[in-house]
Amino acid sequence: MVVHRRPRFRAAPQSAARLQQLADDGRIELVIPYQLHALEGAAGQLSAVIVADLAGGTRRLEADCLLPFFGLATDLGPVAAWGLALDQNRIRVDPASCATSLPGIFAIGDIASYPGKLKLILSGFAEAALAAHAIHPLVHPGEALHFEYSTMKGVPGR
Question: Which CATH code fits 2-62?
Fold first, then answer.
């Protein structure tokens, strides 16, 4: 059984097609559009998952195991009220430093926005390094940053 909050999946097209084929063949049940509402059980053992639709209607699904997978959501929550410059619910940053519009606040990863931004985990790692370099003088004023490039030093300990 697969519970999902909307009829469309943000998965690779082949994966979504395979999931639909399994449902069409009766091998799995797609419970759509629902999301987790509550759990039932006793003594540490799950017995049911309660799901709710968008109108608030609930459905009880017998279950002895739950595998939750979280989707991606760019809800800024209380950060949205900080006065940061935003771009479509993401925080606008300087691509060279990941600095936001407020001094001393930096943002990286999927929450950050700048022209040409690629939402890739690799980009997030690179943004973390850029932000760390920009933050260093704020945390350690007057202290030199001695950065060694991993591609020039080889494997540590050799």
Answer: 3.50.50.60
Reply yes or no: is the peptide bond before residue 68 cis, omega within 30 of 0. no
pLDDT tens digits, residue range 10-42?
778 898 899 999 999 999 999 999 999 999 999
Residue intervals in the chain for CATH 3.50.50.60: 2-62
User: What residue type is assigned to position 64 of the chain?
Assistant: D
Strands 45-52 and 58-62: antiparallel
Q: Which residue has the tokens 């997978």?
A: 69
DSSP state of 22: H
Q: In what order do the strands lie in the sheet with 112-113?
A: 86-87, 90-92, 112-113
Residues 93-145: tens digit of each pLDDT: 999 999 999 999 999 998 999 999 998 889 999 999 999 999 999 999 999 98
Please give the torsion angle defined by the CA atoms of residues 77, 81, 87 and 93, in that order, rounded to the nearest 10 degrees.
-100
